[in-house]
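Lab notebook, bench 4. Continuing the backlog of folding jobs that were queued last week. Each job is logged with the same field layout so the records can be merged later without manual cleanup. Today's entry covers Endonuclease III, a 255-residue chain. Filled in by technician R.K.

JOB TYPE: sequence-to-structure
TARGET: Endonuclease III
LENGTH: 255
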Amino acid sequence: MPASSRTRKAASPRAERSARRWRRALRIIALLRERYPRVRLPLAHRDPFQLLVATILSAQCTDAMVNRVTPMLFERYPTPQAMAAARVRDVEQIVRPTGFFRQKTKAIINMSRSLVERFSGRVPPRMEELLTLEGVGRKTANVILSAKRLEPWGRGEDRADGLGIVVDTHVRRVSQRLGLASTDDPEKIEEQLMSVIPRQEWDSFSLRLIYFGREVCTAKRPMCLTCPLKRLCPSAPFLGNPPWMRRRRRARRFP
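JOB STATUS: finished
OUTPUT FIELD FOLLOWS
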């Protein structure tokens, strides 16, 4: 096939038929599962409460930095009850390296108080309940619900009411490049991914996409020439910078 024909096809992933996109998504899932057979959350924690706190702290911060901060934080405040009674300035001092430390301190203390006052100190199992907690949006709630099926403390629990797909910066970028998402809105990206990814894959798919986005499909220099997904990726001919993503960047710059 001439290069120009490949370029025309790759330049318009929105025109892809839904059945073809679904089959392509299944092949992507299989290759990612082969590359990452076992997936674990990168945030260090021992229970759902600690994961909830760590996920809130991870906003605009690397997982590595969060994992350096949380051992001291959880040693002093291992439970919702302990965190709810913490002094603001003491928590701020510990979480300062994660950035936005005042907002994050307020969020994790108020979230802990809500857990104690409204949920008997337990992290609720439903999306709608999680979203009532301070500092918790759909991404954070999906992390908690997905972890119930992936982490040792949640094994055997199939119930995860309202579970969707975690959409962070890596999932957004890689799903756009792969032509599985055609928007910048995280909730719409989640809806688009849920329409082509089988439900039983939701919890592990986002983690595999995050691993892949960190190792291969990086933000600045994606390894398109050696990428194991290049035959399935409409962005490969453009070395990770396809026209549809350039157009969205320009639209954001000049509203």
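OBSERVATION: The chain is about 55% helix and 0% strand.
SIGNED: R.K.
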